[in-house]
């Protein structure tokens, strides 16, 4: 067996860890050395999931560069048509032949880098030589899988307790999973102020992801890129990049950042839910009369951020406060005095209905506000706003790695509700509000269909956030829908709580249709 101390902690083309997954000695060595968890080192994407596309001859892009010995840039340098369109030249077709410099992915023309152990962020990658701005550093290799498969795997990994996420988006339909197979690029951590960026190149007909230097990077510097549009982690991970403009969480702006993500709960500061600042300005805080908490309302500096995350006590934290406020609101509404309501079986129905409504409302608001928070966080250098959903409960050690079941969002059944209402005015108000809510919902849905290609295009092809106008449109429509929902639920609560008669006593506007074309209920 190879002696552990003889193996350098550097992984290059001749890395001793190449294919180590099938080499039990090396796996043992890694475990003994407390190195990164085993993975298979690959230098080209793995196409086990689907076949590699076959490039048709007519699709091969041939540049018109001509190699001239006295001009090094002549052989597919910056002016090469293929370089300009982020396409690598195809060997055998490039007029510069062996001199072609535009085959960096194919030739694994990587910058030197090496692994190191970070503080609090697991393993990371360092530049092991001076790197120039714009230089290709390394390809992000892994298994090319569909989005659906990525979702499935991401869930499986979480269930298995794999906390480091290695899935990035490749295009609108596919992702690259470097969890089990990947290059050293899988160790590059996220930074909100990165020195690298991802760029997509077409190589022999397939899209590939490269890590490129955004600036000159001196040897010994940690390499980092912004995960925002690449992130596919399920769990929310507290960002410890330390940048002044830190957005708070990894991939807070990504498409893969799911609304029902949760926080890991253990001793790792990155996954701690305690003491998480919810709002970065006082205006953002909900109008509650709860005591203000200093952690919640101030944008925190890097050092403060690190300090705060290490705290494990949640007492007085903003997240605690908010969850209390939600619980308090529900409790108050649930305990509305039912004065005047005839005490018969109907009161049980009323209570049941109110419970249903209350559960609905808190869920819906948490869910919708999460959406808004995500869009708002598109502005750079801003703390990610967590939805004002109740703070996740601490899971027991036994269930630590399991994901909580997603609660199905129940809808208020307006017909059922009006059966509980006493007056036709009440029924009318509920129906009118329901109509408005439906209208707002369909408006939002059609807006989403309209802007989806723009969102995907932005996410796929650039690191820019979705344009402000699109985001604003979306926010406006979301707010409109929220308001419509709120009005509907408020009218239900108001009328159910204040109703003095049973449904049977009410006057029904028989056969009447309201402005939304909905029929009022008639007594059956
Ligand atoms: C692609 S991996 C990077 C390599 C990883 N550090 C490791 O040890 O394998 C992404 C994971 O690294 C961690 N990570 C990366 N950047 C981070 C950051 N800025 N703050 C906290 N954790 C980070 C998170 O656990 C994330 O899921």
TrEMBL record:
Residue ranges of every copy of the AWS domain listed in the record: 58-109
Domain SET intervals: 111-228
Record's keyword terms, sorted: Chromosome, Methyltransferase, Nucleus, S-adenosyl-L-methionine, Transferase
PANTHER family named among the record's database cross-references: SET DOMAIN PROTEINS
Major subcellular site: nucleus
Protein name: Histone-lysine N-methyltransferase ASHH1
Biased composition (Basic and acidic residues): 297-309
InterPro entries tied to this protein: AWS_dom, Post-SET_dom, SET2_Histone-Lys_MeTrsfase, SET_dom, SET_dom_sf
């Amino acid at each position: 067996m190879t002696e552990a101390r003889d193996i350098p902690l550097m992984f290059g083309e001749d890395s001793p860890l190449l294919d180590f997954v099938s080499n039990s000695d090396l796996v043992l060595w890694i475990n003994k050395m407390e190195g990164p968890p085993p993975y298979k080192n690959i230098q080209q994407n793995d196409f086990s999931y689907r076949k590699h596309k076959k490039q048709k001859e007519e699709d091969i892009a041939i540049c018109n560069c001509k190699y001239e010995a006295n001009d090094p840039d002549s052989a597919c340098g910056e002016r090469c048509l293929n370089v300009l369109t982020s396409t690598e030249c195809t060997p055998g077709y490039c007029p510069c032949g062996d001199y072609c410099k535009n085959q960096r992915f194919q030739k694994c023309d990587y910058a030197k880098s090496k692994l190191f152990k970070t503080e609090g962020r697991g393993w990371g990658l360092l530049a092991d030589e001076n790197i120039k701005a714009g230089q290709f550093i390394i390809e992000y290799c892994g298994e090319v899988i569909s989005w659906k498969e990525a979702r499935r795997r991401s869930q499986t990994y979480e269930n298995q307790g794999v906390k480091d996420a290695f899935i990035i988006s490749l295009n609108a339909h596919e992702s690259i999973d470097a969890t089990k197979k990947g290059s050293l690029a899988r160790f590059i951590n996220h930074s909100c102020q990165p020195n690298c960026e991802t760029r997509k190149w077409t190589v022999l007909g397939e899209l590939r992801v490269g890590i490129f230097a955004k600036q000159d990077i001196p040897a010994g510097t940690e390499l980092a890129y912004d995960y925002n549009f690449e992130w596919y982690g399920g769990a929310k991970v507290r960002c410890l990049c330390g940048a002044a403009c830190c957005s708070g969480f990894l991939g807070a702006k990504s498409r893969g950042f799911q609304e029902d993500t949760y926080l890991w709960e253990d001793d790792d500061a990155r996954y701690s839910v305690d003491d998480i600042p919810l709002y970065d300005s006082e205006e953002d805080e909900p109008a509650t009369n709860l005591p203000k908490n200093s952690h919640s309302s101030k944008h925190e500096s890097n050092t403060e951020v690190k300090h705060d995350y290490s705290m494990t006590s949640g007492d007085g934290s903003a997240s605690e406060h908010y969850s209390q406020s939600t619980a308090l609101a529900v409790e108050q509404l649930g305990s509305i005095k039912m004065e005047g309501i005839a005490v018969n079986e109907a009161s049980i129905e009323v209570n049941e209905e109110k419970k249903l409504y209350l559960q609905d409302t808190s869920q819906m608001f948490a869910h919708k506000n999460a959406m808004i928070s995500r869009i708002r966080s598109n502005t750079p250098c801003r703390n990610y706003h967590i939805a004002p959903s109740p703070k996740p409960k601490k899971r027991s050690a036994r269930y630590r790695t399991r994901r909580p079941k997603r609660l199905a969002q129940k809808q208020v059944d307006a017909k059922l509700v009006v059966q509980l209402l006493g007056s036709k005015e009440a029924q009318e108000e509920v129906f009118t509000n329901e109509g408005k809510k439906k209208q707002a919902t369909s408006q939002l849905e059609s807006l989403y269909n309209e802007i989806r290609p723009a969102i995907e295009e932005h996410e796929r092809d650039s690191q820019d956030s979705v344009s402000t106008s699109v985001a604003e449109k979306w926010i406006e429509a979301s707010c409109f829908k929220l308001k419509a929902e709120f009005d509907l639920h408020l009218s239900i609560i108001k009328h159910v709580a204040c109703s003095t008669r049973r449904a049977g006593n009410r006057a029904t506007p028989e056969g009447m249709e309201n402005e939304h074309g909905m029929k009022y209920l008639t007594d059956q």
